[in-house]
Amino acid sequence: MPPIRTSRNRKPPPEGFDDIEDTLLEFANKMKDAENAPHEGKRKNESTWAIFQIAHQRSRYVYDLYYDKEAIGKDLYNWLLKNGYGDANLIAKWKKQGYEKLCCLRCIQAKENNFNATCICRVPKARLGKEQVVECVSCGCRGCASGD
């Protein structure tokens, strides 16, 4: 049987969390609003697009703090990922060449898309044409190819 999480066995956040806590609370409030938003008149997939976008923004915020700005330490970064403030798998993809702008992991999973290929939002806009509007079915992205 797994251990039950209580306040006694949960580690407090590392030093530096107080500086970014307000921004993370804003993301949490936006996420609650997106989850409670009405979805009448929307397609089935459209109702989850805002949730994917907010999760992407929050993960990008954590990624930028650690890798670009170097504003947080490794222990705080690992604590944030462990406690769900960022998507560790998505951040791991951002570190690889060609995936720097990836919007979500569903866009690169071949089984989730037509013809067992990556999502249409991963195709560079130069190859599609200027007048063609691209919109991902799973997350609502309008293009996350690194060549754009």
Q: Tags for this entry?
A:
nucleus, 2 domains, mainly alpha, 41% helix, globular, G10 protein, 0% strand, 148 residues
Structure write-up:
There is one protein chain. Helix 1 runs antiparallel to helix 2. By secondary structure, the chain is mainly alpha-helical. It folds into two domains: 16-36 and 45-95, no CATH class; 101-148, no CATH class. The chain is built from five helices and no strands. The chain is globular, with a radius of gyration of 18 Å. It comes from Tuber aestivum. InterPro entries: BUD31 (IPR001748), BUD31/G10-rel_CS (IPR018230). Keywords: Nucleus.
**Mean pLDDT metric:** 88
Q: Alpha-carbon distance between the termini? A: 49 Å
What is the domain total for the residues? Answer: 2
Order of helices and strands: HHHHH
Largest sheet: none
Poorly predicted runs are none
- Radius of gyration computed on alpha carbons: 18 Å
Number of strands: 0
What would you say about this model in short?
This protein is 41% helix and 0% strand. InterPro entries: BUD31, BUD31/G10-rel_CS. It comes from Tuber aestivum.
Layout: helices, strands, pairs:
Layout: H1 17-36, H2 49-68, H3 74-82, H4 88-94, H5 125-128
Helix pairs in contact: 1-2
